[in-house]
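Review form for a predicted model. The reviewer records the input and the model, then writes brief findings.
Reviewer: anonymous (R2)
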Amino acid sequence: MKILIVLTYYRPHISGLTIYAERLARAFAVRGHEVTVLTSQFKKDLPREELCDGVRIIRVPVWFRLSKGVIMPQFGLIANRLVAKTDVIQLHLPQFDAAGISFRGRLLRKPTVITYHCDLQLPPGLFNRFANSAVTFMNRLTALFTHRIVTYTRDYAENSAYLKQYLSKLKVIPPPVVLPEVTQSEITDFARQHNPQGRHPVIGMATRFATEKGVETLIRALPEVLKRFPDTLVQFVGTYKKVIGEEQYFERLKPEIDRFQASGHWQFLGELDPKQMAMFYPNLDVLTVPSLNSTEAFGLVQIEAMMNGIPCVTSNLPGVRKPVQNHGMGEIFPIGDAQAMAQSLIRVLESKTVKTDKFGFSCYRPDDIAQQYEELFSEIMHTI
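Model under review:
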């Protein structure tokens, strides 16, 4: 089967969406499909076309950026050619250009599936309000033309302003989650390198430094945690400097973070590759996902941490709360409530036993997820 996957950003850009797309694309390729990814050339030094892990990547030149989006005048022409040659189309939303692809798919009777990752909420500002409205409108057009919509959880879909309009098209498929195997010596070496003083407990956060990720909630909660655990270390993994649209947010919180860094309670590890992430999780005592709104729909990092026996403390957002609810590893606290977050962290850190649910994690295997998509594509083929 020829599968066309379309999304605005792909590797080396790092986000939950790009990690999901990359894992699924690789799984399709391993299962014998001809996979093409159509995406943006968001950095000029990226190759226009390359083959990576059996996946053909085609990048469209970017003329300029608008907020967190990109303008690609050649996108339509390239998409026309690729859609005509493909068998099925998978679109990752939110994405401004998806409506045109889904319309082409409908016209040419190509099974077209949306994978909806999260609602879009850009930072405040007149232009961003316009951009939000424009992308929302285009996403609605995409849903109109597409055959089915995939989401991570029913919980998120029923609370999403976008998805709850299209429940009849909905298909719930868990996200693909996999980490490289690492040795105990590699895990120990990682700890020696990044926590040479052996500070304990270690609270992990793995995300972009962005307003909606709730970094500020963790900062407000940390002093209370330090009263109970004076040697606590926060390790933040992910992009934190010059995140598009988040520069002011970082500068506002930087003085408080600087104080925590100076006293040895906060550490930025930057971006880690998959193998480094596999070494990062076992060195944690807890992972936290304090996200604030529906721009977070699940939190793949929760499953990655739990697979390593690490509990999670997460905000009570639809979809985001499901890993803790489903696997019983951690606690859920009210959205944006720093005091409640602190108490949840303290209770989890004080607990001597952590429930492990390794059997339940088999549902996230990329090969199984790819098979569920294949079955969905086949189902659509028999109805159009």
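Findings: The two ends are 17 Å apart (CA to CA).
Further findings: The chain has two domains: 2-176+365-381, 184-362.
Recommendation: see findings above.
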